[in-house]
Amino acid sequence: MAQNMDATEVWNQTYQLLLDQPLDLTLREVACLNDIKVTNIFGTMLVLTVSSESTRSVVEKKLHSALTQTFSQVMGQAMTYVVQIDPQVLEQNAQNVNVPVPQPVPQNIAQVREPAPPVAAPRIVEPEIVPPNAALDVPQNTRDEVTHLNKSARFDNFVPGDSNQFAKSIAFATAERPGFEYNPLFIYGGSGLGKTHLLNAIGNQALLINPRLKVRYTNSEEFTNELVIALGNNASSRRAEMVEFNRRYRGVDILLVDDVQFIAGRDTTVEAFFNTFNELYEQGKQIVLASDVPPKNLKGLPDRLISRFSQGLPVSIDPPSHELRVAILRMKAKAQHIDIPMEVLNLIAEKVTDNVRVLEGALTRISAMASLSNQIITKNLAEQTLKDFANSTVEITPTNIITFVAKYYKLTFEDIVGSSRTKNVAQARQVAMYLSRELTSMSLVDIGSTFGGRDHSTVMHACRKISAEMQENPETYTAVTELTTQLKQGNGF
């Protein structure tokens, strides 16, 4: 019976049972009960939403035992819950809008025992359509110079669905109260599913709530490079460089580390990261990590570090469902002003199932073909365009991409990663950067490092330029299409 109940039914039954029990609730506590909404159910965990910090404190402390027991009674199994503040209320608070908190109800207990008003049932499987420029992986990258956060990656432009909603809810709760319940928070899943977006959203949301926080986003490659630079100086300046390195990473309130799996095998980096992790954890600072695998499956890392990763909360992001893929495509098409029939969106969602970047690449290819041939987008056009566009089991690396692109343009590997700015070399380099972004899980920063230490903004410009050229230039479209096919087939690897 409990398995078939939605969040509304669970809360209505729980509310009534609570009022029927001799709990001796104060009017203030009853008012807090009236403020609760159950907004999601994930297995044995419920997500409760309230309108203020004071209400959350009551719900988490004074009402915890009663709520936990009653939720378990209603669901027929042991249940737990997390409490978040309504995102809309937080946004209003950030804009200095006074938000009323629940007040004691001026009624007698008999009146209070009226059934709770119905609350809106959440849509767990049905994805929410969000405003333009929203995606699991935001294309724009306005990187903050101090925090290194992508300011475009927020919770309000993260497309939710049943495959990622739990991770989003936990991430949001972490941003609200860093260093409390979920520390460290370990987010894992395949490439292109939104891990980087969530890491940045946590930092941006935390700063929205408290601008005085010190936040730092990094990835394993950047952490390693900065450590190498600090250690590479002469003896007289090395100490000062290490002090500055430690200040950047240990003097923060929230540390967000992407692609943590790549520190494996680098003994000096592992030791520095272990010490950084310990110091922040002992100070009660929030640590959020992202990886392509759960902590227990990390290879090449010492057990002591894996143990610390596991002591918090590991949450997964799974590949998007068909419905979520369609929702993402609809949002992307709207943002790019692409007129595309629903049957074509469904076709793309059926054809591409592995990750969001590939999904967006398929949409770009269809749009480019329609633009180049001066046709409207139809199912037949989409089928022809995507006939060789399939999910690949071949591992594609930046080295593969650069090698193939160099051969295609009759250049050398060194030309692509070197400093030459001649027109043909620059074009080939930009195509290689675009393919690296579309076909690998690498961040803009990592791609820039691979291409001769170039800045992430250079990579971002290249991706946008090639994407736009594909709509207008048949040569660019053909190059990207043929190279993608060759890379996915693994020809010559």
User: Count of DSSP E strands?
Assistant: 8
Strand order of the largest sheet: 5-6-7-4-8
Overall tally of domains: 4
Provide the β-strand percentage band: 5-15%
**Major beta-sheet overview:** 5 strands, parallel
Measured as a percent range, the helix fraction is 40-55%
Q: How do the helices and strands follow one another from N- to C-terminus?
A: HHEEHHEHHHEHEHHEHEHEHHHHHHHHHH
**How confident is the prediction overall: mean pLDDT?**
80
Approximate shape: globular
From the alpha carbons, calculate the radius of gyration and give it in angstroms.
Answer: 25 Å
Explain briefly what this protein structure is.
The protein has 493 residues and is α/β, with parallel strands linked by helices.
